[in-house]
Specification:
The protein is of the alpha+beta class. It is built from 14 helices and 21 strands. The strands form 5 sheets. The protein has an 8-stranded antiparallel beta sheet with strand order 17-14-16-15-19-20-18-21, sandwiched between helices. A hairpin with a 5-residue loop joins strand 10 and strand 11. Helix 10 runs antiparallel to helix 11 and helix 12 crosses helix 14. 45% of the residues are buried.
């Protein structure tokens, strides 16, 4: 066995701890050639292959009993093209490293999700997104991909080169090959002013369309068992930079959002009847604040309280009705929900399996503290979301299968046709892909 491989008896677990895999072996290729060799050998040995990033997906999209590929050595910026305004980066590079490296170069992505622990390939393959009126997901900012396919071929795809693969592989679920490098569009670094403000649920929902229209990036959190929300509006600013003070930032982002919230969740898990009063306290703890900083310091924040999550993308015009239905369901049920419900938006995009493919979308995400039974809550939420032709986030818990998904993704057949061509023997298959894509 080559040095690329390590035999393992150790299970792999995701960040939330709800998915475990026991691969036959683990590979850490240090080059594209080594990666191609790993795929060819796995195929010869009759083993399936899955790349894994930092494990921030809540689904088993990366689970395998075959060869688990860790992209830890496929990292770093390969090159910056200031004329084309692109950056090419190794697939295993964490978004955190990409963001800080771009900032040193005076550059930035246009939009981001709310954490940056994931690898660039893991984040884009599952459709990671933030919120945006005009700017879309992380995957939508990809300008080219380097993909190693089942037979070891290194395939470069873009809008001009293998455009059918490009339309599929930007949100590829790990089903088409192993991404070795990603080329992103970038722009000169800019400043964002964040305005965080408590707001009543009834006002947010009544003014939702206006709040989305008036802000480049709008999102809000509703605290179940209360009529309270916290809103966040991010808009470009001429400056100057005015980041949160060291003490006040620590109080908001670490003490309240992580430390005290962790304690509240632990108490709520042990004593469910304490959840509603704790929710009322939590929803009033965060005060209004405004600050200005470079994008990744505004878009992203630390998430140290571990949880499981379900998120659905709905037609944007259905968001408020679905959210009101969700609120009514919680109020009439015995459920006790300690985590806020997150609502974000995205413009329509042109990727086959993007949750915003072909339609302007709103996202409704529900969470439960790790170790708390979540099935009853998530089942009830999923019933509401599927009533609005909701599309589940590929990396978050859901029960949908290929029959349902083919009905809500007009380009579903286009994706599976590319998969049939690139991976006819299903080297990259696992139970999750069999369920969501069929076989």
């Amino acid at each position: 066995m080559s040095d690329t491989y390590v035999r393992t008896a150790n299970p792999w677990r995701n960040w939330a701890g709800n998915v475990t895999a026991r691969p036959a072996r683990v590979a850490s290729p240090a080059s594209v050639d080594e990666l191609a060799g790993v795929l060819r050998r796995a195929s010869e040995d009759g083993l399936t292959v899955k790349p894994v990033g930092t494990g921030h997906s809540f689904t088993a999209t990366a689970a395998t009993d075959g060869v688990l590929i860790r992209p830890d050595l496929l990292t770093g910026i390969r090159g910056v093209d200031r004329e084309a305004m692109t950056v090419t980066v190794g697939a295993g590079t964490p978004l955190k490293r990409l963001n800080t490296a771009l900032a040193r170069e005076g550059l930035s992505l246009t939009n981001m999700g709310d954490i940056m622990e994931q690898t660039v390939a893991g984040a884009t393959s599952t459709g990671t997104h933030g919120t945006g009126r005009d700017s879309a997901s992380v995957s939508a900012q990809i300008r080219a991909l380097e993909l190693v396919t089942a037979d070891g071929t290194v395939l470069r795809c873009s809008a001009d080169e293998h455009p059918d693969v490009f339309a599929a592989a930007r949100v590829g679920l790990g089903a088409l090959g192993v991404i070795s490098a990603v080329t992103f569009a970038v722009e000169p670094v800019f400043l964002l002013t964040a305005r965080e403000e408590p707001m009543a649920f009834d006002r947010v929902t009544a003014d939702f369309d206006q709040l989305v229209a008036e802000n480049e990036h709008f999102e809000f959190y509703w605290f179940p068992h209360t009529g309270n929300c916290n809103t966040k509006r991010n808009n470009r600013s001429a400056g100057p930079a005015a980041p949160p003070g060291r003490v006040s930032g620590w109080v908001e982002d670490e003490l309240l959002s992580n430390g005290i919230f962790q304690v509240a969740c632990s108490v709520g898990r042990a004593v469910p009847r304490a959840v509603p009063p704790l929710a009322r306290i939590s929803s009033r703890a965060l005060s209004a604040r405004t600050y200005t900083d470079i994008p990744y310091k505004v878009f992203t924040s630390p998430r140290r309280v571990r949880f499981v999550e379900m998120e659905y993308a709905l037609p944007r015009e259905a968001a408020v009705a679905a959210l009101r239905e969700l609120k009514a369901m919680v109020e009439r049920s015995p459920l006790r929900i300690s985590f806020p419900v997150e609502v974000r938006t995205a413009p329509a995009d042109d990727m086959a399996l993007s949750t915003a493919s072909g339609r302007e979308s709103a996202y409704i995400a529900v969470h439960m503290y790790r170790g708390t039974p979540y099935q009853a809550y998530f089942t009830a939420v999923e019933r509401i979301m599927t009533g609005y032709e909701g599309r589940p986030h590929w990396g978050k818990i859901h029960t949908r299968d290929s029959g349902y998904l083919a009905g809500v993704y007009p380009r579903f057949g286009e994706f599976t046709a590319v998969r049939d061509r690139l991976d006819p023997d299903r080297l990259f298959a696992n139970d999750y892909l069999r369920r969501v894509l069929g076989d």
